[in-house]
Amino acid sequence: MKARVHVMLKNGVLDPQGEAVRHALGSLGFDGVEGVRQGKVIELDLADGTSEDTVKEMCEKLLANTVIESYSVEMV
């Protein structure tokens, strides 16, 4: 069983990496990009029977900084 955790900065939190990507895309001639938010995807290989609640607990304790980041869990 696998879980995918998507972690993104919360709205209103500055995203310097996203801004650097937006600027670089503009420099490469991609003029239509008005904003970029960069995040991360963490894929976990889990033992059978591991619950989504357990994965959420992992996020709260380690995988996401919940002060500035939001996350979503996808069980696959």
UniProtKB/TrEMBL annotation:
Identification of the protein by name: Phosphoribosylformylglycinamidine synthase subunit PurS
Record has Cytoplasm as a keyword: yes
Known function: Part of the phosphoribosylformylglycinamidine synthase complex involved in the purines biosynthetic pathway. Catalyzes the ATP-dependent conversion of formylglycinamide ribonucleotide (FGAR) and glutamine to yield formylglycinamidine ribonucleotide (FGAM) and glutamate. The FGAM synthase complex is composed of three subunits. PurQ produces an ammonia molecule by converting glutamine to glutamate. PurL transfers the ammonia molecule to FGAR to form FGAM in an ATP-dependent manner.
GO BP term, example: 'de novo' IMP biosynthetic process
Gene: purS
Subunit structure: Part of the FGAM synthase complex composed of 1 PurL, 1 PurQ and 2 PurS subunits.
Keywords, in A-Z order: ATP-binding, Cytoplasm, Ligase, Nucleotide-binding, Purine biosynthesis
GO molecular function: ATP binding; phosphoribosylformylglycinamidine synthase activity
Family per similarity comment: Belongs to the PurS family.
